[in-house]
Design brief:
The complex is a heterodimer of chains A (480) and B (288). The longest helix of chain A is centred in the N-terminal third of the chain and has 22 residues. Chain A has 2 domains: 257 residues, Aldehyde Dehydrogenase, Chain A, domain 1, CATH 3.40.605.10; 180 residues, Aldehyde Dehydrogenase, Chain A, domain 2, CATH 3.40.309. Chain A is 38% helix and 17% strand. Chain A has 480 residues and is α/β, with parallel strands linked by helices. In chain A, helix 3 crosses helix 4. Chain B is of the alpha/beta class. In chain B, 41% of the residues lie in helices and 18% in strands. The chains are: A alpha/beta (480), B alpha/beta (288). At the A-B interface, helix 8, helix 14, strand 18, strand 19 and helix 15 of A face strand 4, helix 9 and strand 10 of B.
């Protein structure tokens, strides 16, 4: 297929972004040195070192929390709500103005295709600020009583798969509700958060309202266990989520967790197959499958299984894996050597446990971290690739005969973040939706996000919601 | 006063819609506020706890799948049946909590009214907590509140009826099923409440009432993989922290307890409903 239509390379220019050789922590409105050993952040597509970034020790985190507390008490807390909203509108606009810069930087630091960072991550991040800006002076209408109050200082820890977007999901609702934040970006993807710090400066956001402390797990632990943090918000693995829930047990801290998933994507025999195949691809290969809500378990009605798998393989054969900066690229680089090792380990289990592995032909770049889009058929629900979150471009295909069986198989997981349904029949979509134990259900689409739509998990995929009116509750004390 | 010898009640557990003794065969003495013997209560074991979780899980589909109107009527029926038993509850509360008859009656009345209040919530939660979401695309987006699942409830230790109803009714109104560990020293109203539930069209297994020690059964419930949430109302501080920590292992929703048992007559608002509801956001296609 690819030989029929060879594409000329169409690389996005990186000249728009000026990456500094080193970055400090962003505390109290200024960049300052961290006391930890600086970490190097690399471009996963080339293994080139992009920059050196400070790491925050406990003392640095303490400084950040104190700055956030001061801002909460002196500026941000007492500020007129309408003015808080205006700052958020400013931030939304600044993100839009510098969107291309953010997109390029995100792709360089994360490895995701420029098409995705440009069309999804950055516009959605701006949309989150725009949406929450409007809430700032309307909180008494949010259904949380006549005078909901902010909690204080929020400690937020975010993952590497959507670095800027996850920052927006955390920071926008926290600020709109009158809280101040100390945010820790992921150790492999700190750069867009640090560029966001510049946006805060350009917006004249009062010092201390947003503080960004970079570092690895130890820095995150210091943030969530700091005694003057009132609220902890975490997005990441279920394993780390458990340890955070343990750490805040017995304290007054409020906690929300957005954790792993193993979503079922259910294709009924009346589904439009071509449309479904596009959706399956989007569900599992979007962002290299580094998506907590990825549609990693494909459940296909038995009668259309062979057709769906054949179309899917044909479509995957046309996907372009390679330079994330190329505007034609569909799958970029795996974010880190560590994640690549985990994907390899779990897919190896797939083969030893008896599933059939399929990958398209084609070469991968010599340098960087890469994994081909992968489809497992003959998967049993007991296989590890059907149970464990791979967090990579790996799809497990299983079959079902009746809607009841589809629902039972879809719900047969400790996770409950998302699910997909493909059918032409609206009443069937709504019936199955009702029976699925998952926080987000997409019908005839997948991996759609919107700031107005609350997002979060059932079961061990976490608790609390982000986005929508419901998401505000995580950052407010309510009388009702 | 007649000289008739009264027929005393054997207090057993309420589990899966039946009234079994503890599988352990254990009982413990329950005394009134002055220390006089009232009854032997079943002393529930870890295995009773496990059986209760199984019963609650199997009842979840039917209860959560019932219409909101139906659930509301069933909860209202609980209030109706309790009203007819008010004298018995008053006697048990007065004895167990050391209250005057008038004060005990006030607590019973408040407990009955609390069922009525929550009965009226079942078919309003979706309107109040749900939403339509104006997403930027060709989808009808909406979010609905749904019950969390099986909720373990450690009932308050002091307020043996009003406190118990105040923590149990919201769990049911939201569509969850419950495994309740009663007040240890004051367990009798819980079992009488079980008799009310058994005759109020509440399906068997929706509520399972265990009398005994929260410190003994609580840790098993906090750890249990088939329990989705835990209400720590009746757990003293050191135990509460331990339970919250072990609940983290399965990412349970935890409703913490205040340091002091609250005034249960206060308006609870949505504070005991929200923790046991999930939000499901749906994207339904438009036009394609």
């Amino acid at each position: 297929m690819t030989s029929l239509f060879e594409y000329a390379p169409a690389p996005e220019s990186r000249s728009i972004v000026d990456i500094r050789p080193s970055y400090g922590l962003f505390i109290d409105g200024e960049f300052v040195d961290g006391t930890g050993t600086p970490l190097k952040t690399v471009n996963p597509a080339t293994e080139e070192v992009l920059s050196e970034v400070a790491t925050a020790h406990e003392d640095d985190v303490d400084r950040a929390v104190r700055a956030a507390r001061r801002a909460f008490v002196k500026t941000w807390g007492p500020m007129r709500p309408a003015d808080r909203g205006k700052y958020l509108f400013r931030i939304a606009r600044l993100l839009q103005e510098r969107a291309r810069e953010f997109a390029v930087l995100e792709t360089l630091d994360n490895g995701k295709p420029i098409r995705e960072s440009r069309d999804v991550d950055v516009p959605l991040a701006a949309a989150h600020f725009f949406y929450h800006a409007g809430w700032a002076d309307k909180l008494e209408h949010a259904g949380l009583g006549p005078a909901p109050r902010p909690l204080g200082v929020a400690g937020q820890v975010i993952p590497w798969n959507f670095p800027l977007l996850m920052l927006a999901w955390k920071v926008a609702p926290a600020l709109a509700t009158g809280n101040t934040v100390v945010l820790k970006p992921a150790e492999t993807t700190p750069l867009t958060a640090l560029l966001f710090a510049e946006i805060c400066q350009q917006a004249d956001l009062p010092p201390g309202v947003v503080n960004i402390v970079t570092g690895a797990g130890e820095t995150g632990r210091a943030v969530i266990s700091h005694p003057d943090v009132d609220k902890v918000a975490f997005t990441g693995s279920t394993e780390v989520g458990r340890s955070i829930a343990r750490a805040v047990a017995g304290t007054e801290k409020r906690l929300t967790l957005e954790l792993g998933g193993k979503a079922a994507n259910i294709v009924f025999d009346d589904a439009p197959i071509d449309q479904a195949v596009e959706g399956i691809v989007r569900g599992i290969f979007f962002n290299q499958g580094h998506v907590c809500c990825a549609g990693s378990r494909l459940l296909v009605q038995e009668s259309v299984h062979d057709d769906v798998v054949a179309s899917l393989q044909r479509r995957i054969g046309t996907l372009r894996v390679g330079d994330p900066m190329d505007k034609n690229t569909d799958l970029g680089a795996i974010n880190s050597a560590e994640q690549l090792a985990r994907i390899r380990e779990l897919t190896a289990f797939g083969e030893t446990e008896g599933a059939t592995c399929w990958q398209p032909d084609g070469d991968l770049p010599d340098r960087g971290f890469w994994f081909k889009p992968t489809v497992f058929t003959d998967v049993s629900p007991a296989h590890r690739i059907a149970r464990d979150e791979v967090f990579g471009p790996v799809l497990s295909v299983m079959t079902f005969r009746t809607p009841d069986e589809a629902v039972a198989k879809a719900n047969n997981t400790t996770y409950g973040l998302s699910a997909g349904i493909w059918s032409e029949k609206g009443s069937r979509i709504l019936k199955v939706t009702d029976q699925l134990r998952a926080g987000v259900v997409w019908a005839n689409t997948f991996n759609e996000f919107d700031p107005t739509s609350p997002f979060g998990g059932y079961k061990q995929s976490g608790y609390g919601r982000e986005g929508g009116r419901q998401g505000l509750a995580a950052y407010l004390r309510s009388d009702s | 006063m007649s000289d008739r010898l009264t027929v005393r009640k054997t207090y057993k557990l309420y589990l899966g819609g039946a009234f079994p003794r503890s599988e352990s065969g254990r009982t413990y003495e329950v005394h009134d506020a002055k220390g006089h013997f009232l009854a032997n209560a079943a002393w529930a074991s870890r295995k009773d706890g496990r059986d209760a979780v199984v019963a609650a899980r199997s009842a979840f589909g039917k209860w959560s799948g019932a219409t909101a109107y139906n659930r509301g009527q069933v909860l209202y029926r609980v209030a109706e049946v309790m009203e007819g038993r008010a004298a018995q509850f008053t006697e048990e509360v007065a004895a167990g909590e050391g209250l005057s008859a008038a004060k005990a009656r006030a607590a019973v009345d408040a407990a009955i009214d609390r069922w009525v209040w929550y009965a009226g919530w079942t078919d309003k939660l979706a309107a109040v907590l749900g939403s339509t979401n104006p997403v930027a695309g060709p989808y009808f987006g909406f979010s609905v509140p749904e019950p969390t699942g099986v909720v373990a409830v450690l009932a308050p230790q002091r307020s043996s009826l009003l406190g118990l109803v105040s923590v149990l009714a919201p769990v049911l109104a939201a569509g969850n099923t419950a495994v309740v560990v009663s007040s240890k020293e004051r367990p009798l109203p819980a079992i009488t409440l079980g008799e009310v539930l058994a005759t109020s069209d509440v399906p068997g297994g929706v509520v399972n009432l265990l009398t005994g020690d929260a410190a003994e059964i609580g840790p098993w419930l906090a750890e249990h993989a088939d329990v989705d949430a835990i209400d720590l109302a009746g757990a003293p501080a050191p135990l509460a922290m331990e339970l919250e920590r072990s609940a983290a292992g399965t990412i349970k929703r935890v409703l913490r307890a205040p340091a002091e048992e609250p005034d249960w007559t206060a308006d609870p608002g949505l504070s005991r409903l929200r923790p046991f509801l999930e939000t499901k956001s749906v994207w339904h296609p438009i036009g394609v």
